Amino acid sequence: MTLRCAGTHVCEVPIRAAKRQTLVELLSDPQLTMEALLDRKKLTSLPGHRFRYQSSPYRILTFNVQPEVVFVAVWNGQELQIDFERCEIHGLAAIQKAVVFECRATLTPFDALIRASASATLALASRQSFLVFPDAVLLSIGRKSLDLVFARLEQRCQKRLRKAVMQRL
Known about the structure:
Strand content: 35-45%
Distance between the termini: 52 Å
Helix content: 25-40%
Largest sheet: 8 strands, antiparallel
Shape: elongated
């Protein structure tokens, strides 16, 4: 049996002086947008609008977790779509192969506003390493982990993305 928890998060980044066209210019360049949102030292550009990013480590229970993701970021004419292709969560020892993380996000420009929305799923493909924990405990840990992911996304949008737009005005 696979345990799974999922969540969604929407944040709005108000930028008073920004016209929609200015925001379109930023978001329609995935490289520029990803460099605005993420630490450039940890971001690697790959062919085909793909990127690799190694996150800063953070602590969950007794684990120091450090996600590494490969994702594609594509402007579709209306919004920037970001889809994770692969996510490895380093620091979970032997159980890291049992943990599956998926995420999809969109950044949509409006006049004086960028709306960022994300949906994420965290699943245990195998329960063998976790048999000592009840399902309720594992689901609670999963939800807290997703909350951390959404909090980081919110912070990056509110601070880094806003700063990148303000520099373009």
